[in-house]
Specification:
Elements: H1 6-17, H2 25-32, H3 34-53, H4 57-77, H5 82-93, H6 97-114, E1 132-136, H7 137-141, H8 153-159, H9 168-200, E2 210-216, H10 222-234, E3 242-246, H11 254-259, H12 274-285, E4 291-297, E5 302-311, E6 316-320, E7 346-351, H13 354-370, H14 388-411, E8 420-424, E9 430-436
Parallel strand pairs: 2-6, 2-7, 3-6, 7-8
Antiparallel strand pairs: 1-9, 4-5, 8-9
Helix pairs in contact: 1-4, 3-4, 9-10, 13-14
């Protein structure tokens, strides 16, 4: 048993940090700056995780020591005393785990309520300095002009998701104008393509698909929007070939998520095979034929092995998912790190008040409990046999512990990156439309 403590380590790091860089690794690391030190800390964290998952006790001890040492270096550079960290730990351990877990979500909610729209840069209120033109649903509907309604009431009912009351009136008010706008963008891209091929004298070049990204929270109506748009766009007079792909198939299989302890973070960025997703979009934008997209089963809540959706050079591809507008950290060395949204020609964000999305999510869960969850093959079948109160409590827990956190951390921050934002009201119908200025 050793008497060596973290406080002793903190003192040693502080002493060695003052040495000449050529005489001490610690001093050299400190001199390189926080970015270098933090990167090294991240590397040690990954190595510690690998040792833990590999059940290598000796290596886990060694990597943990490296991790603690590099943490002390990062704290030293940031001038954060170890005592501050220990005080925070003492505060957290003075309350129950459930209380501590609820703290950040509650403070996040309070912070969001304290921010007034006028305080948000690039807010969606319209006006001289907003990057968006903002229209009411009634104003937006006038931009339909002579765009024909090519869907029937039965088709809209088939296309809409569970608990989504979109109808023909909503299609007339919102989607026909949106279809006309997208037609203008597609036509403009085709004109630009022809001009560029003439400029480059590339007569054999083929126009690559026009890609539309659709983003937004769970239960907000992304799937309905994507399906209705796909049908409307395919019925333009030019009869373009339109395909729809969702990001669900690019989730890691449940076996991988379980192994990496990520099942309670399913839908978060880390739960996606970003490499496969980017390779798919790269192939689409390169104009390659028969590009395969993995498929997903909402019944088994898992990727379907060896089953693919084949996308063969469509004119338009609609790509729908909660995190498709998310950015990534840029590399210090300037190497290209593509983002999913780099492949989009137009992007749409489906938005609503947080309280509404919460209500829609719980109501949908309770409806599914009476329908899809009844299937013994359903991943959630166990929730069909418990009491209604118990099921509602589980839905609330899933919302607060997973989906709300994902909304705050990863989805909502991407909203200002969209070209168009559909803001929904309590009845699940669009109230306002914000279109980015050119």
């Amino acid at each position: 048993m050793t008497d060596f403590t973290l406080s002793d380590l903190e003192k040693i790091v502080a002493t060695r940090a003052r040495a000449a860089p050529e005489e001490s690794w610690t001093a050299k690391l400190v001199a390189a700056g926080q970015t270098k030190a933090a990167k090294k800390l991240g590397e040690e964290a990954v190595e510690t995780v690998i040792a833990a998952v590999g059940e290598d006790r000796k290596n886990l001890v060694d990597e943990s020591a490296d991790l603690l040492y590099h943490l002390m270096v990062v704290l030293n550079i940031a001038a954060v005393p170890l005592q501050d960290v220990m005080s925070e730990l003492a505060r957290r351990t003075s309350q129950s785990g459930l209380q501590e877990k609820s703290g950040p979500a509650e403070s996040m909610s309070i912070a969001a309520k304290d921010i007034e729209p006028a305080d948000i840069p690039g807010n969606l209120q319209g006006g001289e300095y907003s990057p968006y033109h903002v229209f009411s649903a009634e104003e937006w509907s006038r931009f339909r002009a002579d765009t024909p309604l090519t869907l029937t009431a039965d088709e809209v009912q088939r296309l809409r998701s569970l608990n989504d009351p979109v109808d023909l009136d909503e299609v007339r008010r919102i989607y026909l104008s949106l279809s006309r706008l997208l037609s203008a963008h597609v036509e403009a891209s085709q004109i630009l393509f022809r001009q560029r091929t003439r400029f480059l004298s590339m007569s054999n070049e083929t126009k690559t698909p026009f890609v539309i990204g659709v983003a937004g929270s769970v239960a907000v109506g992304k799937s309905t929007t994507a399906r209705i748009l796909a049908e409307l766009l395919a019925r333009w007079p030019s009869s373009p070939k339109v395909d729809l792909v969702t990001t669900d198939g690019f989730l890691y299989p449940n076996a991988v998520l379980q192994r990496e302890n990520l099942m309670d973070r399913k839908g978060f960025p880390a739960s996606y095979d970003i490499g496969a997703l980017l390779r798919f979009l790269s192939a689409i934008k390169a104009g390659r034929p028969n590009v395969k997209a993995p498929t997903y089963s909402h019944l088994t809540y898992d990727v379907i092995p060896d089953q693919f959706q084949v996308i063969d050079r469509p004119d338009i591809l609609i790509f729908e998912g909660i995190n498709v507008l998310q950015s990534r950290d840029l590399p210090a060395d300037g190497k290209i790190v593509p983002m999913v949204s780099d492949f989009f020609d137009f992007s749409i964000y489906i938005d609503a008040e947080e309280s509404l999305i919460h209500s829609w999510y719980v109501n949908r869960f309770m409806r599914l409990r009476e329908t899809a969850f009844q299937n013994p093959q359903s991943f959630f079948h166990r929730y069909a046999t418990i009491s209604e109160d118990a099921a509602r409590a589980i839905a609330e827990g899933l919302w607060h512990n997973i989906n709300l956190k994902n909304l705050h951390q990863n989805i909502l921050p991407t909203r200002p990156r969209a070209d168009l934002i559909l803001q929904k009201g309590p009845n699940h119908l669009t109230q306002t439309v914000a279109l980015r200025k050119l």
